[in-house]
Amino acid sequence: MTTFKDSAPAGADPHTWKMSLSEIFETLLGGNLSIRISAYDGSSAGPADAQYGLNLKTPRGTTYLVTAPGDLGLARAYIAGDLELVGAHPGDPYPALKALASDLDFHRPSPLALAQIARSLGIEHFKPIAPPPQEAVPRWRRFAEGLRHSKARDAEVIHYHYDVSNAFYEWVLGPSMTYTCAVYPDHDASLETAQDNKYRLIFEKLRLKPGDRLLDIGCGWGGMVRYAAKRGVHAIGATLSAEQAEWAQKAIVDEGLTDLAEVRHSDYRDITESGFDAVSSIGLTEHIGVSNYPAYFGFMRDKLRPGGMLLNHCITRPDNASRSRAGSFIDRYVFPDGELTGSGKIISKLQDIGGMEVIHEENFREHYAMTLRDWNANLVEHWDEAVAEVGEGTARLWGLYMAGCRIGFNRNIIQLHHVLATKLDDHGGHQVPLRPWWNA
């Protein structure tokens, strides 16, 4: 049983004795550390021969940790360079983060120990300071951009996350410029092979053929649009990111696809065309907001012809009861206003709008962990260029975010689901085969 330091050592004056920073960490984490903790006050805790460690380098880092306990404070200190994960590259801190996560079983010390921690730290560390510049403002301050999930506010959120730098995304995502979960045909497949396989799978699930019309909402850099156009499908994509639309349109021209493909810098809700044979949404649902699902799915239904196909690809929770809003770190640094829910709720919301029948769903949780692994590897390979392009703080943020999400997928904290549906005709019938027709 661990004994926590809630009183002064023998012989020490209890009125003047202070805990070291490493003792505070050890107390809060419950002891029995598997990583090595060191701090700028010269103290350390945990196994001396530990492969990975956490090094608190500055008093500012202490203030970040104290004023925002949990993942937000850790992220602030790490992104600002005040906290170091020892033993791992900042472009891929997954091994060290995984080891740290095994120790993050926060212990609730006694009131006496909490008082001693506060006295040891000093009042100056309890005064909030400005966060790193990469951090978005909190939810309550975002109303300047409009109500939650209004067109104006959604545009600002997408600009924040996606208009970082096309060059940066090229280094991280690779030639496919695809920022969604890949589908690996086997464990040894490359990222590019897996991304191409994902588009192939979606294309087949949607039963697309030459001459058909596809609408891809939240199309990113136009990967699905261009894949379909190369196979004779007339495809329109919509993205709220100006940089994505510019990159995608250039790729369409360069690949000779202008007669079949178009990517618009547009809110998907402003697409006026209808009668599409298929609608795909690959990685957009996370930005929609659960309360807006009826309008979101209703929009896609109304864009389809009877018998048309819909595929929704999005990150999900492993249950349908958890709160939908993202945690503080994700909301401030990655996807402001993002929301996740379970695949069951997505299916029920799609069914409830009427006129659609869900015919298949599947989970690609392990595939997303592998995708993130490969993105982290790309960031490590291009670390110097990435830092020169976006700054070290932003590069560290992306390394941390991708590694943290990888842990989430590996531990089944989050999942990735495809939900496939078809639009029924006026008599409630559909035109799909009796059994799945695609190559899994």
Automatic annotation (TrEMBL):
Its EC number is 2.1.1.-. GO terms for biological process: lipid biosynthetic process; methylation. It comes from the Bacteria. The active site is at residue 405. One of its GO terms (molecular function) is methyltransferase activity. Keywords: Lipid metabolism, Methyltransferase, S-adenosyl-L-methionine, Transferase. Belongs to the CFA/CMAS family. This is Class I SAM-dependent methyltransferase. It comes from Gordonia amicalis.
